[in-house]
Specification:
The longest helix has 21 residues. It is globular and about 35 Å long. It has two helices and seven strands, in the order ααβββββββ. β1 and β2 form a beta hairpin. The strands form two sheets. The chain has a four-stranded mixed beta sheet with strand order 2-1-4-5, with no helix packed on it. It is α/β, with parallel strands linked by helices. Bound molecules: copper (II) ion (CU).
């Protein structure tokens, strides 16, 4: 039984040596060029997507005010730490409306803040808007 252990050990060492012979180094070198363009892309202003995360609960959002630049593409993620279902809606901006989510769920939407001004965002579930589930979205010219 002892010999089998030694044989396996030798095989493992030989196997490791073989992998190194095959050349792990050129493969690693292949990785870095793919990383560099990704870093470069985020430097381009027009491609930049503003990521926002907003939490909803009874009755409100964790941010009372959101500020964006006109023309900005926004990827917004809504979470729900409350007990009731909630959503997030801005009537004046096309696409700025999430689906209704339950506790623990998450939903992500993408929209363009194409209209300058100050708008109210709110939850369209039941009477939540009247109960204070609102905030202010500022889109700067
Ligand atoms: Cu709600």
């Amino acid at each position: 039984m002892k010999n089998i252990g030694i044989v396996l050990l030798v095989l493992a060492v030989l196997g490791g040596g073989y992998m190194m012979m095959k050349g792990m180094t050129p493969k690693e070198n292949m990785v870095s060029p793919t990383v560099a363009p990704t870093a470069g892309e985020s430097m381009m202003p027009m491609e930049q997507v503003q990521e926002l995360t907003l939490d909803s609960f009874e009755f409100g959002y964790d941010q009372k005010e959101l500020a964006l630049k006109k023309g900005q593409t926004v990827q917004m993620t809504l979470t729900n730490s409350g007990k009731m279902p909630h959503d997030w809606v801005v009537d004046e901006i096309a696409g700025a409306k999430t689906q209704m989510i339950k506790n623990g769920e998450t939903t992500t939407i993408t929209f363009v803040a194409d209209t300058a001004g100050e708008f109210e965002y709110y939850c369209s579930v039941g009477q939540h808007r009247q109960q204070g589930m609102v905030g202010k979205l500022i889109v700067e010219e």
